[in-house]
Design a protein that fits this description.
The chain is of the alpha/beta class. It is built from ten helices and ten strands. The structure holds phosphoenolpyruvate (PEP) and manganese (II) ion (MN).
Length: 303
């Protein structure tokens, strides 16, 4: 049995393994990244994820209609977002909830990209749909529930598209990085990690999940993959999103993924996650603050 429990999640995952459980995505041993905290940049069109400038991915939880998506897409572009998010295939806890528009939703996202120039981030739920979703998306999102769907990870690894890999709410850092390794082993190193809150005893009291801010510097220590934070699914309420976004950037996240509804939309009328979605005016302030914090951090590090 290999040594474990020496404080490194890398070692904790290595019990009984002949090889290291995640060696491609590990910082240790990777030329240019060992001994520093730099990230390997993931390029999506002209957007660079993993550099000093934090990137913001914003948009509705779900693509509900052409009108709703185009309105929010234009608003998030004006607020300073770098990419547009929106689910066409939705992983819903109940089978009776809105499951997304499917291919029609992907076509709406393509129209929103055309209208705004923003690259599209959208979830793929099923290995059989990777080809279809990849033909529309610029970044394939793997949702928290699918973090250990290994055939899906293999398939997105083969797609040649950048992957946004959400952390399951009960996954350890080592399990999350092993999931990233499934993508990397297929030759795809363009993986962006996304922390979205973990399940703790406070669930539902003042949050939907607990935003694990601590995992940001820990992940940066363990891997060169860039990491972004989704404060929306952790907060569960729009009022907490600005503060938790600032915390994430302060902890060293390379960006944010934020759910947004129309400026005048009724949160309770949204088909998915309306109450945790912020308005474009609030997003503009989140973006401004994130860029300011990152610039101040870069200056402080340089002096
Ligand atoms: C989402 O971002 O649309 C989503 C479903 O989030 P998660 O997978 O983190 O629950
Ligand atoms: Mn959502």
């Amino acid at each position: 049995m290999t040594k474990a429990l020496n404080g490194s999640p890398h070692a904790a995952c290595a019990v009984g393994a002949r090889r290291r459980p995640y060696e491609i995505v590990a910082r240790a041993g990777r030329r240019g990244f060992e001994g520093n905290l730099a990230a390997r940049e993931v390029r999506v069109g002209s957007v660079v994820v993993g550099g000093e400038r934090p990137i913001v991915i914003a948009g509705p939880c779900a693509v509900e209609s052409r009108r709703q998506t185009l309105e929010v897409a234009r608003a998030v572009a004006a607020a300073g977002a770098d990419m547009l998010r929106g689910g066409a295939y939705k992983p819903r806890t109940s089978p009776y909830d809105f499951q997304g528009l499917g291919r029609a939703g992907l076509e709406i996202l393509a129209a929103a990209r055309e209208a705004t120039g923003l690259p599209i981030v959208t979830e793929v739920l099923d290995p059989r749909l990777v080809e279809e979703v990849a033909s529309f998306a610029d970044v394939l999102q793997i949702g928290a529930r699918n973090m250990q769907n290994f055939p899906l990870l293999t398939e997105v690894g083969r797609s040649g598209k950048p992957v946004l890999l959400k952390r399951h709410w009960s996954a350890t850092l080592a399990e999350w990085l092993c999931a990233a390794e499934y993508v990397a082993v297929e030759g795809n190193l363009d993986v962006i990690l996304c922390e979205r809150g973990i399940r703790t005893f406070t669930q539902g009291e003042y949050s939907r999940s607990t935003l694990d801010v601590n995992v940001v510097p820990a992940a940066r220590r363990e891997t060169f993959l860039p990491i972004v934070v989704d404060p929306s699914h952790a907060a569960g309420a729009s009022e907490f999103v600005p503060a938790t976004s600032a915390a994430a950037i302060g902890a060293g996240a390379h960006g944010l993924l934020i759910e947004v509804i129309g400026e005048d939309a009724d949160p309770d009328a949204a088909l998915c996650d309306g109450p945790q979605s912020i308005r474009p005016s609030a997003l503009a302030e989140v973006v401004r603050r994130a860029r300011l914090t990152a610039a101040q951090t870069a200056t402080a590090n340089a002096t």
